[in-house]
Design brief:
The structure is a homodimer.
Chain A: H1 8-19, H2 25-32, H3 36-48, E1 52-59, E2 68-76, H4 81-92, E3 97-103, E4 109-115, H5 118-129, E5 135-149
Chain B binds a DNA duplex through residues 24-26, 34-38, 40-42.
Chain lengths: 156, 156
DNA sequence: CTTGAAAAATGGCCCGA
DNA sequence: TCGGGCCATTTTTCAAG
């Protein structure tokens, strides 16, 4: 049985954890106006019920030697569900592809790609993506700079 | 003076924190084969030197009532740096735009948009984005499903 | 919500490569 | 000298009242 309604405090908790995923429960409780135990209970419930899917450190890709970011718009020859699934399965095996979104329209998939350098990026494109089965068309665009990069959702 | 080289343990720490941003320092220390104090010292250094930019809870947008995700490809009339900056500044004030990447090529910016429903999405498009100064062309694509959504970088 | 015991975080200090 | 490990104190977590 899963709750459907979140009250104001639940939403505050989610907003705080989205902004700072490593805040201590004591600080979180103070921010939302609770004592620590009920606050922790709420966090656990939000985790169990799937409102919180996980916690991640945001790393600086460039400082870690990943100089190239790019997006690829991929069109497939066949859009049968089994072929879409097959492509998604293949994508899952490509570590350089961090995100894959299936789109409505002429482009079937939008991929976010991260590579150490231009050479690795190009090798992935020519050696993996454009030659994969059922891939009809690939259009790529290098990222020049990240103007905004906020996690999650606007307001909770 | 900032360190440029990360050793094997630093990379392990980053990989673990990227996968689980809320792991306790003791568990992290055990995983990377250190005792807690030096492990925490390394984490603090990685934070201070900017390898770790922050920690975030990954929230489930749909469960939180954000049913619509979309990407918008935006072309500007003027690509003078001051006009690019002006657009980026405007984007910063739009909460529905979670990410904005400046691209090389015919499209100037790729925006990731999250909205509560189709109506809110449409109102943002017609009322804000397409009518913003210097915006020449907007092409949008709704996200049908998220096939892959991994944080950060492939391997560290 | 409060309490209290167990665990974790964190600073000090010494040690070895 | 730069880190790592040990120890002690403070803070946090978390189950029970």
């Amino acid at each position: 049985m899963r709750r459907v309604k979140l009250d104001r405090i639940d939403k505050q908790i989610l907003a705080e954890l989205q902004a700072d995923g490593r805040i201590s429960n004591v600080d979180l409780a103070r921010k939302v106006g609770l004592s620590a135990p009920p606050c922790l209970r709420r966090v656990r419930t939000l985790e169990e019920e799937g409102f919180i899917r996980g916690y991640h450190a945001e790393v600086d890709a460039e400082r870690l030697g990943y100089a190239v970011s790019a997006f690829a718009m991929v069109g497939l020859s066949s859009q049968a569900e089994s072929d879409l699934k097959a492509f998604e399965e293949r994508v899952r095996g490509w570590p350089l592809v961090r995100e894959c979104h299936m789109l409505a329209g002429e482009v079937d998939f939008l991929l976010k790609i991260v590579a150490r350098d231009f050479d690795a990026y190009q090798q992935f494109l020519t050696g993996e993506l454009t030659t994969a089965p059922n891939v009809a068309h690939v259009k790529t665009a290098l990222v020049l700079r990240h103007s905004k990069d906020e996690p999650g959702v606007p307001v909770i």
